[in-house]
C-alpha cells in the first residue's frame, strides 16, 4: 500500500511473495459477504451465496472462472444442490420462501408457514424436511408437488437437521440442546439425545443452556453435534453418551462440522477458528485462524483443499498436502508446494529497515518524522534501507572497521577452541564472581559425594545478570557498611586479588597471541589462624579505629573550609513601581494572611473598605472598595494635575478674550 503502481509492477518481477501468489479461480469472491459455500457431487462446480445484493455465483473448476451469477429477491439462509451438477438447486430464504432453480434459472417459488433455519433432502422419497422457528418439521414432496403431514416434535424451535446417507435416519438439533432422531418410513421418533447435559464437563464453563448449532453424520453409526457454547460432541448411535467432547475454548457457536476419512479427522469451525482433531483421541492435528469471521467451511471431496465463506468479499481457499492430494483441476499445486518447501523465504520488507525513535535520534534523522521518508508502524517507523545505510555510514564512519575487527577476533577465538579454556570473569564485580565460582566448585564436590542435584549458579541466572554488567552495581569495598560487616573479607580478598592478577596477565598474554607460560607453583595459600573468633574481633577493632581516624580528618577539613568562607552581604531587588518603606509592612501582610477569612472581613469593615448588609430575601450583600496600588495612585495624581492645568489655561484664555473685546469697544 506504500508503493506506487510502477513500483508494484517492478515488485511483481522481483518479489517472491507476489510471484508465489496463486489465483486458482478468477474473481472467487462476493460483493460484500459470503454466507454459504458448497461443491457439486461431480466436483466440477463450486457454488456460493452471499450479499449484497443477495445472489448466487457458480464457478466452473474446469475453466477456473465464473460460470454464472443470479440475483435473488431476499437473502439465502441455506441451499442444497439436488443434482450432480448445477441443474437443480433449492434455496431457503429469510422471508419463509423456498425457491427452486433449474439449469436455465428460476423455476418455482413456494412458502412455508414459519421461518426456516435449515432443511435436508430425503432421496428415496423425494421429500424436503424443513426445520425452523416451530415445533413442527414441514415436509414438501417434490414428486407430488405438495406438502405432506408435518412431524410434531417436543421442541419449541429447531436449528439444524441432517439425514444419514446410509440408512436415511433423520436427525434434528433443537434450541433446548437435544437431538431428536426420526424414522422417515414410519414417521415416528426413534431416539432422543440430551447433548446439553453431556457437553458440560468439569473443565468447561458455559453461560446459559447450550443449544444445537451444527449436526453431521459420518457413515452409518457416527454423528457429530456442535453446540452454541463451542463444544463438539462425537456420538455412536448405539450409545446415549458421547465418545469424546472437544471444546473450542472460545464460547462461540459451532458453524460447521466436516469429516476427513483418510486421516480420521474432524474439521470443526466457529466464527474465529478452524480446528482439525483426531476423532479417536481428540488430539489437535492443526488449526487455522483467518483474518475475518467464518460463516461456512466446505471440504473438497477426496483432497486436501478447504474453502471458507467469510465476513469479507474474498472467499479463502486453503490447500493442506497432508490431508490429501490436490484436485485434478489444479494438480499443479502439488509441484508448487514441493518447490516452495525447497526455496528459502524472503519478506516484502527486505527493502525497508524498522527503526525506533531512539534509533532515529542516534542517526540524526529525528527531523524526518512526519515526512514521506518514514512510514509509521507500531512503536517505530519503516525507512528505506539505502537511506539507513547512508545515515549510518555518516553517523559512524568507522563501523566497517569495527565490524572487520570483530570478525577477525571471532575467527581467532574459533582457532583457539582446542586450547585450554580460561575462566572468563565479568567486567563488574570480578571478586564476587570469583568467590561464586569457588563456592560453586566446592558445592559440586559435596553434591557428588552425596549424589544430590546441583543448584543453579548466580552467574548463569538471568535475574542477576545486570549485577555483573552494570557498573552501578559495583560493590564499594571502602564503604563503612562493607568494612564493618565483612571484617575477615580482607584476608580472603587478598588471595582472590592474587588470583585475579594471574588471570588478567594470562588474558593479556592471550590477546597478544603469545604462548601460554607453564603453570607455576602458587604461593598464595598461607597459613591461617585456627582461632577465627579472635581474628574477627581484632579485625573489627582495627576497622573501627581506621573509620574514626578518617572521620576526624574529614571534620578537620570541613572546619578549615568553613573558616575560609567569608560572609557576603545579600542584596534584594525591589520591583519596578514599588517603594520600599520598611520590613514592618511585609510582616503586617504576613500576619494578615495568617488570619482567617472572617477576621480579615471584620478588619476591613472597621477600615471602611467593606460593607456587609442583609437583603430582603434573607441573603447577605457585601460591597467593597479595591485597594489602589502605588502605581495607580501616581497615575491618578498625574491625571488630576493635568486636569487642573487645563482648567487654569481655559480660564486665562477666556479672560484674555474678554479684555480684547472691551479694548475694541473703548477704542
UniProtKB/TrEMBL annotation:
<feature type="domain" description="NUC153">
    <location>
        <begin position="461"/>
        <end position="487"/>
    </location>
</feature>
<feature type="compositionally biased region" description="Basic residues">
    <location>
        <begin position="643"/>
        <end position="667"/>
    </location>
</feature>
<feature type="domain" description="Nucleolar protein 10-like N-terminal">
    <location>
        <begin position="1"/>
        <end position="343"/>
    </location>
</feature>
<dbReference type="InterPro" id="IPR036322">
    <property type="entry name" value="WD40_repeat_dom_sf"/>
</dbReference>
<dbReference type="InterPro" id="IPR040382">
    <property type="entry name" value="NOL10/Enp2"/>
</dbReference>
<feature type="domain" description="Nucleolar protein 10-like second">
    <location>
        <begin position="348"/>
        <end position="396"/>
    </location>
</feature>
<dbReference type="Pfam" id="PF23098">
    <property type="entry name" value="Beta-prop_NOL10_N"/>
</dbReference>
<dbReference type="GO" id="GO:0000462">
    <property type="term" value="P:maturation of SSU-rRNA from tricistronic rRNA transcript (SSU-rRNA, 5.8S rRNA, LSU-rRNA)"/>
</dbReference>
<dbReference type="Pfam" id="PF23097">
    <property type="entry name" value="NOL10_2nd"/>
</dbReference>
<dbReference type="InterPro" id="IPR056551">
    <property type="entry name" value="Beta-prop_NOL10_N"/>
</dbReference>
<protein>
    <recommendedName>
        <fullName>Nucleolar protein 10</fullName>
    </recommendedName>
</protein>
<dbReference type="Pfam" id="PF08159">
    <property type="entry name" value="NUC153"/>
</dbReference>
<dbReference type="GO" id="GO:0030686">
    <property type="term" value="C:90S preribosome"/>
</dbReference>
<dbReference type="InterPro" id="IPR056550">
    <property type="entry name" value="NOL10_2nd"/>
</dbReference>
<feature type="region of interest" description="Disordered">
    <location>
        <begin position="507"/>
        <end position="536"/>
    </location>
</feature>
<dbReference type="GO" id="GO:0032040">
    <property type="term" value="C:small-subunit processome"/>
</dbReference>
<keyword id="KW-0175">Coiled coil</keyword>
<feature type="region of interest" description="Disordered">
    <location>
        <begin position="623"/>
        <end position="667"/>
    </location>
</feature>
<feature type="compositionally biased region" description="Acidic residues">
    <location>
        <begin position="507"/>
        <end position="517"/>
    </location>
</feature>
<feature type="compositionally biased region" description="Basic and acidic residues">
    <location>
        <begin position="627"/>
        <end position="642"/>
    </location>
</feature>
<keyword id="KW-0539">Nucleus</keyword>
<dbReference type="InterPro" id="IPR015943">
    <property type="entry name" value="WD40/YVTN_repeat-like_dom_sf"/>
</dbReference>
<comment type="similarity">
    <text>Belongs to the WD repeat NOL10/ENP2 family.</text>
</comment>
<keyword id="KW-0677">Repeat</keyword>
<keyword id="KW-0853">WD repeat</keyword>
<dbReference type="InterPro" id="IPR012580">
    <property type="entry name" value="NUC153"/>
</dbReference>
Amino acid at each position: 500500500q506504500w508503493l506506487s503502481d510502477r513500483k508494484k509492477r517492478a515488485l511483481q518481477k522481483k518479489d517472491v511473495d507476489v510471484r508465489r501468489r496463486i489465483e486458482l479461480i478468477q474473481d472467487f469472491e462476493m460483493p460484500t459477504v459470503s454466507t454459504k459455500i458448497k461443491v457439486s457431487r461431480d466436483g466440477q462446480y463450486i457454488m456460493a451465496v452471499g450479499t449484497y445484493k443477495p445472489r448466487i455465483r457458480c464457478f466452473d473448476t474446469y475453466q477456473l472462472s465464473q460460470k454464472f451469477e443470479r440475483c435473488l429477491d431476499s437473502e439465502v439462509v441455506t441451499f442444497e444442490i439436488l443434482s450432480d451438477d448445477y441443474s437443480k438447486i433449492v434455496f431457503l430464504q429469510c422471508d419463509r420462501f423456498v425457491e427452486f432453480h433449474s439449469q436455465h434459472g428460476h423455476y418455482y417459488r413456494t412458502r412455508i408457514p414459519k421461518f426456516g433455519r435449515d432443511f435436508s433432502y430425503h432421496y428415496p422419497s423425494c421429500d424436503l424436511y424443513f426445520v425452523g422457528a416451530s415445533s413442527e418439521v414441514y415436509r414438501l414432496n417434490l414428486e407430488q408437488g405438495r406438502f405432506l403431514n408435518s412431524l410434531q416434535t417436543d421442541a419449541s424451535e429447531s436449528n439444524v437437521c441432517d439425514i444419514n446417507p446410509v440408512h436415511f435416519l433423520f436427525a434434528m438439533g433443537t434450541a433446548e440442546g437435544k437431538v431428536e432422531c426420526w424414522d422417515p418410513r414410519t414417521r415416528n421418533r426413534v431416539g432422543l439425545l440430551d447433548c446439553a447435559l453431556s457437553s458440560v464437563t468439569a473443565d468447561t464453563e458455559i453461560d446459559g443452556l447450550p443449544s444445537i448449532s451444527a449436526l453431521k453424520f459420518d457413515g452409518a453409526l457416527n454423528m457429530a453435534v456442535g453446540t452454541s457454547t463451542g463444544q463438539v460432541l462425537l456420538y455412536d448411535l448405539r450409545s446415549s453418551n458421547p465418545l469424546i467432547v472437544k471444546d473450542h475454548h472460545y464460547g462461540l457457536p459451532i458453524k460447521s462440522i466436516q469429516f476427513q476419512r483418510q486421516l480420521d479427522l474432524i474439521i470443526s469451525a466457529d466464527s474465529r477458528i478452524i480446528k482439525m482433531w483426531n476423532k479417536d483421541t481428540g488430539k489437535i492435528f492443526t488449526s487455522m485462524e483467518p483474518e475475518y469471521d467464518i460463516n461456512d467451511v466446505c471440504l473438497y471431496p477426496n483432497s486436501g483443499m478447504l474453502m471458507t465463506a467469510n465476513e469479507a468479499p474474498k472467499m479463502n481457499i486453503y490447500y493442506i498436502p497432508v490431508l490429501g492430494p490436490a484436485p485434478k483441476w489444479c494438480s499443479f499445486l502439488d509441484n508448487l508446494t514441493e518447490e516452495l518447501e525447497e526455496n528459502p523465504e524472503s519478506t516484502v520488507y527486505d527493502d525497508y529497515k524498522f527503526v525506533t525513535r531512539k534509533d532515529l535520534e542516534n542517526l540524526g534523522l529525528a527531523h524526518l518524522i512526519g515526512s514521506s521518508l518514514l512510514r509509521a508502524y507500531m512503536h517505530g517507523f519503516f525507512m528505506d534501507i539505502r537511506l539507513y545505510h547512508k545515515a549510518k555510514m555518516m553517523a559512524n564512519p568507522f563501523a566497517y572497521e569495527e565490524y572487520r575487527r570483530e570478525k577477525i577476533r571471532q575467527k581467532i577465538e574459533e582457532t583457539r577452541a582446542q586450547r585450554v579454556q580460561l575462566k572468563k570473569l565479568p567486567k563488574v564485580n570480578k571478586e564476587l564472581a570469583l568467590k561464586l565460582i569457588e563456592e560453586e566448585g566446592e558445592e559440586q564436590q559435596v553434591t557428588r559425594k552425596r549424589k544430590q542435584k546441583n543448584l543453579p549458579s548466580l552467574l548463569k541466572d538471568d535475574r542477576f545478570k545486570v549485577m555483573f554488567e552494570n557498573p552501578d552495581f559495583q560493590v564499594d569495598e571502602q564503604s563503612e557498611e562493607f568494612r564493618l560487616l565483612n571484617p575477615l573479607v580482607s584476608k580472603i580478598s587478598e588471595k582472590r586479588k592474587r588470583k585475579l592478577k594471574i588471570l588478567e596477565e594470562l588474558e593479556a598474554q592471550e590477546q597478544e597471541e603469545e604462548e601460554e607460560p607453564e603453570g607455576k607453583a602458587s604461593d598464595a595459600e598461607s597459613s591461617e589462624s585456627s582461632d577465627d573468633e579472635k581474628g574477627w574481633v581484632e579485625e573489627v577493632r582495627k576497622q573501627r579505629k581506621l573509620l574514626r581516624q578518617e572521620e576526624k580528618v574529614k571534620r578537620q577539613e570541613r572546619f578549615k573550609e568553613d573558616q575560609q568562607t567569608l560572609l557576603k552581604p545579600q542584596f534584594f531587588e525591589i520591583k519596578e513601581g514599588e517603594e520600599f518603606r520598611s520590613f514592618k509592612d511585609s510582616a503586617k501582610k504576613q500576619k494578615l494572611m495568617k488570619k482567617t477569612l472572617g477576621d480579615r472581613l471584620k478588619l476591613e469593615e472597621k477600615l471602611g473598605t467593606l460593607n456587609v448588609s442583609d437583603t430582603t430575601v434573607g441573603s447577605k450583600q457585601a460591597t467593597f472598595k479595591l485597594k489602589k496600588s502605588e502605581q495607580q495612585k501616581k497615575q491618578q495624581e498625574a491625571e488630576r494635575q493635568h486636569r487642573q492645568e487645563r482648567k487654569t489655561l481655559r480660564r486665562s484664555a477666556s479672560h484674555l478674550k474678554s479684555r480684547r473685546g472691551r479694548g475694541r469697544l473703548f477704542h
